[in-house]
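quick one, two chains, predict together pls
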Amino acid sequence: MSKQFTPNNPLPQEAPVPEEIATFSEAVEAEIDGHLAKYPLKRSAILPLMFIVQRERGYLDKPGVAYLADRLGVRVTDIWEVATFYSMINTEPVGKYHLQVCRTLSCKIVGADKITEHCKSRLGIKPGETSEDGQFSLSEVECLGSCGTAPMMQIGFDYYENLTPEKVDELIEQCRSNQLSNGVR
Amino acid sequence: MFIGAIGCEPLQLARVQLERSESLETYQKHGGYESLRKVLDGMSPDDVIGELKKSALRGRGGAGFPTGMKWSFVPKDSPKPKYVVCNADESEPGTFKDRYIMERDPHMLIEGMLIAAYALGSKTCYIYTRGEYRYIIEIMDRAIAEARAAGLVGEKILGKDFACEVYTHSGAGAYICGEETALLNSLEGLRGHPRMKPPFPAVAGLYGCPTVVNNVETLTAVPDIIRMGGEAYQKLGTEKSGGTKLWSVSGHVNRPGVYELPMGYADMEKFIMEDCQGIPNGRKLKAVIPGGSSVYIMPASDIEGKNVTMDYEGLVAAGSMVGSGGFIVMDDTVDIFESTKNLTEFYKHESCGWCTPCREGTDWLVKVFKRIARGEGKPDDAQLLLDLCDNIEGKSFCPLGDAASWPIQSAIKKFPEDFRRHLAPLAGGNGHKSLSTL
């Protein structure tokens, strides 16, 4: 006979695992304090702090989330709720160089597709993927406000405009030889 | 890329070509912070708002609401702190003017915000910048630090009894945060969902306190309005659309860029063919989206020989809107079905998911566009798109739903051929009854 669920026979529950909490250097803690000082409510600093955690840990991982919840005095779910809303917050690891090609209309009509295709063939990955060696991620993103200098892409936070396939080759070559900043800051 | 004024003396772009234009030294050498001094020296907050009203300045973010009136809605007797928030979330496809203002003349924005703070009784200003503009945030942070060191931000500004802080804040990739109440939620550390209005931010905005949210271009117009007087500023433009406006020109023109034009500039055809130096490769003009991706698309036939004036009234009369001034020019190689599909994918991606008409509606729009593009559409799909738009427009919680619908409605109306070409093979030829409505 199958077991019936009754209040006296609760479903087994996993014992809570203590959360690992990220730690940061004094300099980073001071930077975080600087952001917190701007707002009457700590929670307002959630996005600036997420960028710092991403910079320091590569992406917003569980220990990073636990740290933010603790630092901002909110629940872990509050952090996830915000993290999953914003496209620039990475809750999965991304490559060292994150190539983000604009796909929206002004770029599209002057050859954004060609740039994306070129990146795909040179890197051997599709938008949304990361190369096996963890060096490159490729994304198609929405309008980055660079329409007068289209087509364009962002690597990390850095803008690269008026792109041609040749320029893309140059950039990828510089990435491969670690001569280009990955634009993370 | 061109950056400058046509048809008027440059106001907002007066300093952008100068060497080290972003520095306090350059800004002050060319009259910077003199308007703030004038205000603190002897204008009351009501005087400032009065000049704004006379200037006929209208919000440059897209909605075009009169700025002076927006400021006057802030209750003077409220015991709560008041906030000035600059909307630098510039995300409307085709718009990039705010980026260049902040990159090249950050102090103009700081001065505009300080004058606004004085007029509204605020001690704190936030500049909410889209997360992708990290280098702009760095420029603004340096400019704020420079201004603070010079006694222009902080306590006792210019030695007067006026204190105000200015802070930058970074978004993290969400178009919806350009909607002012979503921006405020985001600034409070929440998901960027829009809020119910009323109450309007002027009454209950940031942290529930009276707040004015203005676009970068709006706030940077303020120092010039104070310097020259509201009336003189208004006269640069038309009676209802005062001053000058920045147009971000992209797409198929020989000289894209940021153009400062007097409101009422005539006419759009001359602007494209002469000022922007025409269409490349000898192609013909097919269409223009004049005010950022959310406004109605204009076919060349509504522009050529029609003497369309470039101001709020002129563009409405011509069947579109000023919006954010994101001016996207398309030549005759562009398939308007494809361009509309591209924008619809944008709105689907950027719908915040808060309300059903927009969340589900934009998803269905993209599904229908994609199946037509794959050659698997149904003969009635153009009508289906219009029906979906009808169920989104005016029925969504915030204007994003309208913004997603208008490009499709106008594209099907103005470019039926481009849709018919994709649908006719599915309908068994051009004679199918569903196509006769196109």
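The radius of gyration of chain A is 21 Å.
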